[in-house]
Design goal:
The protein is α+β, with helices and mostly antiparallel strands and 288 residues long. It has 6 helices and 15 strands. It is globular and about 60 Å long.
Amino acid sequence: MHPRASFALALLLCCAAQLAAQQQMPAESAQQLVRDVIYNELHDRECDSFWKYRSVRITSSQNIVREQVETAKGPIYRVMEDHGSALDAGQRRQEEERLEDLIQSPTAMERIERAHVLDEDRLQRVMEMLPDAFLFRYAGPPAGDNITISFRPDPAFQPATYEGRIVHALGGTLTVNWRLKRMVDMDGHVLHRVNFGYGILGYLKSGGIFEIHRVQVSPNHWKTSLVDVHVQGKVLLFANIDKEQRESRSGFRPVPHDISLRQAKALLDQTADEDQTALQAALTQGSR
């Protein structure tokens, strides 16, 4: 082939590839796509949708596996393993007593419900800030239905709360399903130290990292499957905010939206019995 013809063909192929990539990109700007995604996430949280799932929770003092059921009065859980070992008879008895005390004590459950509501309200406030607090841009073409968007603080945003100042110190990437307009992953880090009251009221150190991953559990619902946080700081008005925590969740199964605490505990009891039966079977098989 003539060199000029080869160059022309290569140029044509390059232009075609660029055009194909452009055609795959979402029609709206990254900023608008994120705004739509956050709108969907917030409305999903408003639905009466409760789930049963297993979580592995690791902190500076914990390494536990627990089964959890969401209810209208807040989530309840049963610890299944502690530091890699199944609970012994005494620990299982303690869990049974703790759960019975919990569902028979309105005051105890009210505390859990109140803490859950506070966490949900805080999450909602943070989510509502995101479209205004950051500048978003596409970090590349989509990979199937997913596309990665980078974010950095918008200098024009003026945070009015401690939460806002913490949020505004973040940067990283956001992965979304651009067809369904849902969040898949948020991976970020603390860009700079944040002082509150010139450091007298507290601070947040730079360099902290976090990741939140979401999975689709039904045609209309998504759930958080991973929360991985490693940040350091102290805000006196909020108490210690040091976080060294990783929690992964799996095995999501829907439960009735009107499930009672007693019914939720029955599901936890059933799962505990099934796990104990499976463990005994494995031990019997291994001794042969």
